[in-house]
Amino acid sequence: MPINVPILFVEINYSNYIFVVGIIDEKENIKIIEKIIIKNEGIIENKFTNINQAQEIIKKNIHLIEDKLDCVFKEVTIIIDNFEYSSINISGFKKLNGFQVLKENISYILNSLKSVITENEKEKSILHIFNSKNILDGTSIENLPIGLYGDFYSHELTFFLIRSNDLKNIKQIFNKSNIDIKKVLIKNFIEGIQLINKDNNETFFKIKISKEKSDISFFDKSSYRYVEHFKFGSNIILKDIEKVCSINHEIISNILLDKFFVNKDYKEDEYLNEKYFTNDSYRKIRKKLILDIANARIEEISNIIFKKNININSFRKNCDKVYIIIEEEDVFENFHNSFESYFSKNDNFKTVSINDFQIDQLIINAANLLFYGWKKEAIPVTQSKNSLISKIFKSIFD
Asked: DSSP class of residue 25?
């Protein structure tokens, strides 16, 4: 583990490139020493559209940081939050007939599963592999059951994949600056780790509502097991208000600044104040109407992503907590109570709404993941002494 050596992280999301540099001190604490956030260029939504433009802006800002810190970066860890990735759960088994589970048995199962994925997903590359379930004779076991006797052993892995062309483009952009990609991390995974560490709760749904997109993730006993993406976000709520009330986005922004929807601080028949219509003619609109419009769309969003989503039915059984991350601050401030209410309505789920994750803490979690690995990731990247499970997986996949 490098002590007091600058470590470069770059987050690529729908809006920005975020450059962050951290160092690890003598006590193995991670400190953020530099950060630059700029509007992304050369990329639209989840596709690079101008590779030269992206290369130049990234190269320019890396050089700025290198000059300021008097260092030269040779590698970077990428955090992705815009490229679509997918998850696949797949199981393998071994008939034991009363014999012990051997390291070789597990190696064979895991090698076979990886071969199945690579052969059937030829246009995708593996980003993360998680240990999802170890089952010996029908009993779920937390750790690898090496040395235990049994008749039948089943092992389930979860693979997270990205389009290979997207990964090639990311590598090409940073190779222009003579920087190698050390690892590509999924931001949802890092955020999940942060929630686990913060609340000491290892099984939950995590729903992220961004401006133009949304996704749902599922963590099961600290293993990242599922993701699904949706091509709509919180902006659809504001567009509904615009359309029904015949007002523009500027007026809506002015209304939301007052945050009177948070505690329903208004009367049932109270109308909007004229002050919101600064550059437009006044319209007599009840405040409650705006909340009703928002609630109707929020209910629909909750049904599509969560309540009526048949793809997650098998994950609901042993889970009672849902985190809802609402990235747009004005939407969060005014409607987070509605999100919590509709996502938990008629269910026993405890919902918690969060505005967003602080970038500094996110990078600290990413650095810990980089150097120490994660207990349920099949290929931990760690500088510490490898455990038995680390040695097994590294021998298979490296």
From this structure: -
CA-nearest of 52, 47, 4, 59 to 29 is 4
User: At 119, phi and psi to the nearest 5?
Assistant: -75, -30
Q: Which of 209-223, 250-264, 371-385 has the lowest mean pLDDT?
A: 371-385
> What pLDDT is attached to residue 171?
95
The SS3 assignment for 381 reads coil
**Helices marked H in the chain:** 51-69, 103-120, 164-175, 187-199, 235-245, 249-257, 287-302, 329-344, 359-372, 388-397
Q: Report the Cα–Cα distance between both ends of the chain, in Å, rounded.
A: 20
What element of type H or E holds 353? strand 350-354
Distance of alpha carbon 245 from alpha carbon 320, whole angstroms = 37
In order, the DSSP letters of 15-58 are SEEEEEEEEE-TT--EEEEEEEEEE--SEETTEES-HHHHHHHH
Fold of 201-356: Nucleotidyltransferase; domain 5 (3.30.420)
Q: Which phi and psi (to 5°) does residue 251 adopt? A: -65, -40
Question: 63-77, 269-283, 355-369 — which one is most confidently predicted on average?
Answer: 63-77
Q: List where CATH 3.30.420.40 sits in the chain.
A: 7-83+165-193+358-372, 201-356
The one-letter code for the residue type at 87 is S
Read off the pLDDT of each residue in 211-237 and give the average, rounded to a whole number. Answer: 96
Query: Is residue 382 over pLDDT 80?
Result: no
Residue 118 confidence class, pLDDT cut points 50, 70, 90: very high
Backbone angles phi, psi at 14, to 5 degrees: -65, -25
Record: fold of 85-161: Dna Ligase; domain 1 (3.30.1490)
163 contacts 124 by C-beta, under 8 angstroms: yes
The token duo for 89 is 């759960």
Query: For residue 341, what are its two tokens?
Result: 């209410």
What's residue 262's pLDDT? 82
Q: How many CB atoms lie within 10 A of CB 394?
A: 15
Supply the CATH classification number for the domain 7-83+165-193+358-372: 3.30.420.40
Per-residue confidence at 384, pLDDT binned at 50, 70, 90? very low
pTM as predicted: 0.90
